[in-house]
Write a structure and sequence with these properties.
about 180 residues; mainly alpha; 7 helices
């Protein structure tokens, strides 16, 4: 597929991959979940404090579920406030539609639970989660751009910009921690 400098997706191109149906939803919710998980694991892994990876995993998961529920319900409230109470999914469906946000934190939760099981240190789990999430940000951004019909080079640029979010969290963790 040729690159189209300065233009949007190619018209008439059918999106490919898992993002075929609603790439913007996956992109938004997936990126939000990955950045949320990274920020939380960076904040919860405080050097010098006693490690508690099981509790940290629970906080990451509960925060993601609560954020997803709040975001879904905010959509319901916004529709109601705009007088469009009949449009869109119901309250429960709007909240459930936020599942990609919660799914995006599961690798981080799994790494922290592995640390809780003694498979590795919490610091190693936190650092691995930060790097893994940053790589996933690149993959999600690239995949969403490809699904939207962008060429390889433009998709890689989009992935790199998404990856930059993870790198910012890693840099902040290094500077603050």
């Amino acid at each position: 597929m040729p690159e189209h400098a300065g233009r949007g997706p190619t018209r008439g191109v059918t999106p490919k991959g898992i993002l075929r149906r609603r790439p913007e939803g996956w992109l938004f919710k997936g990126i939000y979940g990955l950045v949320l998980a990274s920020a939380l694991v960076a904040a919860l892994d405080v050097p010098g404090e006693e490690a508690n990876p099981g509790q940290d995993a629970l906080w990451v998961l509960l925060t993601a579920l609560t954020s997803g529920a709040a975001h879904g319900y905010a959509h319901v409230i916004a529709r109601r406030a705009s007088g469009d109470a009949t449009a869109g999914p119901g309250r429960v469906r709007a909240v459930l539609a936020e599942w990609p946000l919660a799914a995006a934190v599961l690798p981080t939760v799994a790494m922290l639970l592995a640390a809780e099981a003694g498979w590795w240190a919490e610091e190693t789990a936190a650092d691995t989660a930060l790097v893994f999430n940053t790589v996933l940000l690149f993959a999600l951004g690239t995949s969403a751009a490809r699904a939207a019909g962008l060429g390889r080079l433009s998709s890689c640029r989009a992935g790199l910009l998404d990856m930059l979010l993870g790198l910012v969290v890693i840099a902040a963790d290094a500077l603050i921690g």
